[in-house]
Amino acid sequence: MASYTVTTEEDNISTLTMLGPNKEQPAFAAPGFCSSNSWGTAHDVGAGAGIAAQELAKRFNHIIVSDPNEGYVGIASERLGQFGFCKSKFAFLQEGAEESSVPSHQVDLLTICEAFHWTDVSKAMDSYARQLKPGGTLSINFYGMPQLINNESAQRVWGEMIEIWAQKLHNAGGILSRGVEHMSAGLDSVPIPDQDFEAGSKRITVDTGCKMKTLNSALSMAPKQVGQGEVMELIEDDKEWRSMRDVQWLKGFFATLLPRVGEEEIQDLWSALESFADGQNVEISWPLEQILSTKRWVGAVATYVVSLRCKNDEELMMLVLSEVSKDSGSRSRTAKDLIRRDYAPSISSTTASGRRDLTISRIRTTLLADPKPS
């Protein structure tokens, strides 16, 4: 799994860097991407063993570590306890990305590293947007299967092995089949809803000497979801994601892929790969992509909502909707749904007499207290 760290520039979250497999130093940086400028709370979604959380904990005050797998949550908790961090710094949640229990507008940075393809992507994006504070940063990171470069014959055989594994994964159905389709399309299959995120989201591709490839040409890919106004950025000729490996290392890597393809099932291919490697190490490279996006501010309501006089919550939502409509154009038809999504849970948990004041207070403090940063 990759590790992602955040560094500062004049106390702003302005540079996100990624550490790749076997890396001890940042492999690339995306400078100038400014978020809410707060080091309060980060959420590592699909955290696995907590590798990204370990890096985030060096900077953020509080880290939410979540994964749907109970085993991984336990491993992350044990691992992170070994690095001298205060136990209260972390909250561990066994839950999926799509329906998080994290309250609305609580997170300054939400990152999902090498796990987006296992989610229902649209539902997960809705959950990320709900959790992020306005101005907060969403960072989605993905590197595909390693590829063998500067040895076309060896890469052709390696590609056949990956296709066999991908077919087996697809045949398993359900979440595994969906995962293959998203892995093949890469992060282009992730939609960035403009009602939730600012224009100018970055889709970053790192030229590591290879490109993201379809895992199996016979299988379908998830459709591309790249929107207008998104910035396509290429970081050229990054050799830090390359390394020299022998065939034994490739066998070890291949054995980690689930569902497993036994070495005996593809012995002829391994023999061919060994022949093309000719006893030498082969150069491998990891195709790499990242999405960086900023949670939208709802600025038009800033000085208006605080003085609302509403008889009930439905009237409040209609008034907020009318104000948002003036500011957000085509997004106005979804504004009411967004308000319900973000505030309905807290409304339903209070007494009838307290609902209006609670709702106004939450909108004021989480969305509208500060002007949008310049």
Model description:
Belongs to the methyltransferase superfamily. InterPro entries: Diverse_substrate_MTase (IPR051052), Methyltransf_11 (IPR013216), SAM-dependent_MTases_sf (IPR029063). Pfam families: Methyltransf_11 (PF08241). This is Putative methyltransferase. Helices cover 35% and strands 22% of the residues. The protein is of the alpha/beta class and 374 residues long. The protein has 2 domains: 3-151 and 184-245 and 286-294, Rossmann fold; 301-368, no CATH class. Strands 6-5-4-7-8-14-10-11 form an 8-stranded mixed β-sheet. Helix 3 (121-131) links the parallel strand 7 (107-113) and strand 8 (132-143). Helix 4 runs antiparallel to helix 7 (267-277) and helix 8 packs antiparallel against helix 9. The protein is globular, with a radius of gyration of 23 Å. Residues 1-36, 299-309, 324-333, 346-353 and 364-374 have low confidence and may be disordered.
